[in-house]
Amino acid sequence: MHVKNLVVGAGYAGATIARRLAEEKNESVLVVEKHDHIAGHAHDRYDANGVLIHEYGPHIFHTTDKAVWDFLSRFTEWHHYQHRVLSYVDGMLVPLPISADTVNQLYNLDLSAEEVESWLASKAEKVPEIRNSEDVVVSKAGRDIYEKFFKQYTYKQWELYPDQLSPDVIKRIPVRSNRDTRYFTDRYQALPKQGYTEMFRRMLDHPRIQVLLHADWFDLKKEIRFDRMFFTGPVDRYFDYREGHIRYRSVHFEYETLYGREFFQPVGTVNYPNDYDFTRITEYKHLTGQKLTDRTTIAREYSSAEGEPFYIVPSAPNLTLARRYADLAAVERNTTFVGRLAESRYYNMDQVVARVLGLSL
């Protein structure tokens, strides 16, 4: 088989590329996807009890990029939703990210936003150079908050402590002195009203796009020739691990449906930094707005070194290895590497779409 454009992966990167090629270039595209579904790790489905769940963990779309928002809005209506997260600390559920409400509740204070800013500054440690994720937190909020919220949670998530990880890991979680308890502050925050998978189905619904599911490129590469390929999978596997194996983290989910109650917890996600083996519990009805009063489904998340790769481990040796693969990818003929695994970068969903919209096709 010979194809004009081959896209490996039907997640955000692959689906956006395919749509642009079909629409803007009027070219045929073959998308091969190893799973039996489209939408990558944003895939959602109805469980046996009729609850819409995200199969790979909670996905809340948020962006400040109007071009990205407008592009995706062509393929979905939106359920507007602003995410709030609580963290189970010292027997209490307190808001995360750290905010004035967090500090007041946790330390039994009654400080204004301005007073909280001064309080945090008084607890912060002087760090001459921000070298790792521990430095980020202690320089903003001090040692006690670091210990209560970040140290053990990070170890559960990565099997490394914050002082072993890039500063960028915890920089994504702000420390605020105001009373804004939203997890994100982007202008646009929502979930596709009919679900992510339906949004992707519409994105890939074009006469010039063909999608093959349950089709692993590494099993097919001797059978398919192409003029151009857009690869969204693990870059180390593409190069047959010639530089070594990149370390990834996976996530395993334990689902439970509870009957006779509308909700299990007060918000969509509750983090457990210090208690239990799971990192967090997500209750999907909070996210999706689904109206079911007699049952709810929750998912406990366990981070693992084994399983399908979700994220690259952001340790210094691993990032050095990823840069070696990036150098190989940069000179590969007729192949563009794009997405989290292909570029070894932590992209949010909107950042992947923005990256593809910015590609010169």
Which features does this protein show?
361 residues, alpha/beta, Rossmann fold, seven-stranded mixed sheet, globular
Question: How would you explain this protein's 3D organization?
Answer:
Strands 8-7-13-14-15-12-16 form a 7-stranded mixed beta sheet. The protein is α/β, with parallel strands linked by helices and 361 residues long. Helix 1 packs parallel to helix 14 and helix 5 (133-141) runs antiparallel to helix 6 (143-158). Among the domains are: 2-38 and 204-247 and 314-357, 3-Layer(aba) Sandwich (Rossmann fold); 102-171, no CATH class. The chain contains 14 helices and 17 strands. It is 33% helix and 23% strand. It has helices spanning 12-24, 66-73, 100-107, 113-123, 133-141, 143-158, 168-171, 196-203, 217-220, 235-238, 284-288, 316-330, 340-343, 349-357; strands spanning 2-8, 29-32, 44-46, 52-54, 61-63, 78-80, 85-89, 92-96, 188-192, 209-212, 225-231, 248-259, 269-271, 280-283, 295-304, 311-312, 335-337. The longest helix has 16 residues, at 143-158.
Short description:
With 361 residues, this protein is an alpha/beta fold.
